[in-house]
Design brief:
This protein is α/β, with parallel strands linked by helices. It is built from 18 helices and 14 strands. Helix content is 42%, strand content 19%. Helix 2 packs parallel to helix 3. The radius of gyration is 25 Å and the shape is globular. The chain binds 3-methyl-2-oxobutanoic acid and zinc ion (ZN).
Length: 523
């Protein structure tokens, strides 16, 4: 082994805020992106791809804000191979002590012919020009030949050689459409290793999509064959079927260290809380059976498994829940539990709250404990996530009452608190209680949404378990997800809907101040 391959440290490049955010319904506000970037820093990722500054003024601002916050990891921005994009990335990331410009151009025949209408040589010239320009701004430049896995091998090697000669310090090989399989990808990396001059002097990277469910397996094949950077997202969110899941690939390397002989710098105990944070912000629910961070990932139901577990955990457990930050205990909290016990449990669950957030969460906990006897970890997580969106405002749900009679439209009365602290109330009817509540909130906030999907799952067990509702709604042709929890599912759905309305209002204020006023008169 030589150069970077001799090094057994794999860099983790997180693209949750760029490729992850491109997933339908996953767009985030600046404040939410900053929260995620700070959590990624605590997770100790090496590089944060914070966005695509040329995509929109909002994207530029969020990359800049994340770079200026200097959380610790290298901050990277994506650019096409043109001067405007590259200048925008540099302007956005330069505030970070460690920053990177990532340029990309598609190289496969399909993309050359149908998307770019460019000849092979033209593509190489464009990549070389872009890399040289980016190098004039910074010493840390990454290049990606988009759709590399469907590019002719000899041509790919030519492109990568030219990129290295032009000054790229990281070359990333994307499986853009999730088409490759592990054996084939292993061969591709070995081919590049033997056919590209200077490849051992740069960091070779891998970027996989999950269209055939092999993003993690393909990324592992690539590092086994010499890649030393993995591009991935929290919970595997991303375009279509998503990207390589950070938590899965990191825990695979750690759990099978004797096989891979590789390590990452990830603080694995932050995996679970970071996953929950991203899930709550994007509204993308983590499936119960998702590896590493799903609710059932460490649950043992079958009697024979439970028996084995009681004898020795290693019989059926290849990782310890605590290693990924999951410290579920059978201990439940209730209405007599004090602030101290609550704060300890919050910390055990991996959340870091300031005094203000702790107070708000504790108040919500007390309210819930009045309605529900036992408060489980899932309830506490739901409270913390709700408190965050509630404090973000501008509207807060004060109360909701619904009237339903069979074969008649349902009627809902909603009271919201606006930013001035004033209560505003509205009544609407609808086909069901949820539609009626949504209608009443639309009148107050001025944001109209159409409901596409309403998913319900319980955050804990028992008859009085809280319902956690995820709604998918459409607004002006785009889809958004929101989440809310309550022991009352209509209220949970209303909170989820209000969360989206609040997000849209906050975003509109940044993009076009005054378009959706939060202080609309009562209707
Ligand atoms: O999937 C892809 O090819 C990408 C590149 C821009 C790296 O996201
Ligand atoms: Zn991608």
């Amino acid at each position: 082994m030589s150069g970077d391959t001799a090094n057994n440290r794999v860099r983790i490049f997180d693209t949750t805020l760029r490729d992850g955010e491109q997933a339908p319904g996953c767009s985030m506000t600046l404040r939410e992106k900053l929260r995620i970037a700070s959590a990624l820093a605590e997770l100790n990722v090496d590089i944060i791809e914070a966005g695509f500054p040329a995509a929109s003024p909002g994207d530029f601002e969020s990359v800049k804000a994340i770079a200026d916050a200097n959380f610790g990891p290298t901050i990277c921005g994506l650019a096409r191979c043109n001067p405007e994009d590259i200048e925008k990335v540099y302007a956005a990331v330069q505030g970070a002590e460690k920053h990177r410009i990532h340029v990309f151009v598609a190289t496969s025949a399909i993309h050359r012919e149908h998307k770019l209408r460019m000849a092979k040589e033209e593509i190489i010239r464009s990549a070389v020009g872009a890399i040289e320009m980016a190098r004039s701004f910074t010493d840390d430049v990454e290049f990606s030949p988009e759709d590399a896995s469907r590019t002719e091998l000899a041509y790919l090697a030519e492109v990568v050689s030219a990129a290295i000669e032009a000054g790229a310090t990281t070359v990333n090989i994307p499986d853009t459409v999730g088409y490759t399989v592990p054996g084939e990808f292993d061969e591709l990396f070995r081919y590049l290793k033997t056919h590209v001059k200077g490849i051992d002097d740069i960091t070779l990277s891998v970027h996989c999509h999950n269209d055939l469910g092999m993003a993690v397996a393909n990324s592992l094949a690539a590092v086994h064959a010499g890649a030393r950077q993995i591009e991935c997202t929290i919970n595997g969110i991303g375009e279509r079927a998503g990207n390589c899941s950070l938590e899965e690939v990191v825990m695979a390397l750690r759990t099978r260290e004797e096989y891979f002989q590789l390590e990452t710098g990830i603080e694995t105990t932050r995996l679970y809380p970071t996953s929950r944070l991203v899930s709550s912000i994007t509204g993308m629910h983590v499936p119960r059976n998702k590896a590493i961070v799903g609710e059932n990932a460490f649950a043992h139901e079958a009697g024979i498994h439970q028996h084995g577990m009681l004898q020795h955990a290693s019989t059926y457990e290849i990782m310890k829940p605590a290693d990924v930050g999951l410290s579920r205990s059978s201990l439940v909290l209730g209405k007599h539990s004090g602030r101290h016990a609550f704060r300890d449990r919050v910390q055990e669950l991996g959340f870091v709250l300031d005094e203000f957030e702790t107070n708000r969460a504790f108040n919500e906990f007390k309210k819930l404990a009045d309605k529900k006897k036992d408060i489980f970890d899932g309830d506490i997580e739901a409270i913390i996530m709700n408190v965050d969106s509630a404090t973000a405002g501008p509207w807060i749900l004060k109360s909701l009452s619904v009237k339903t009679l069979s074969e008649q439209p349902a009627e809902a009365n909603v009271v919201l608190i606006d930013e001035t602290g004033a209560e505003q109330s509205s009544t609407a009817s609808g086909d069901g209680p949820v539609a009626a509540a949504f209608g009443a909130m639309e009148k107050l906030t001025g944001v109209s949404l159409s409901l596409k999907n309403f998913e319900l799952h319980s955050t804990s067990t028992g008859e009085d378990a809280q319902g956690e509702v995820t709604v998918t709604v459409m607004h002006e042709g785009s889809s958004y997800r929101g989440r809310g929890a309550s022991v009352d599912i209509v209220e949970a759905g209303s909170k989820a809907c209000l969360e989206v309305m609040n997000r849209l209002i906050r975003r509109e204020r940044i993009d076009a101040p005054g378009r959706i006023p939060a202080d609309r008169a009562t209707v």
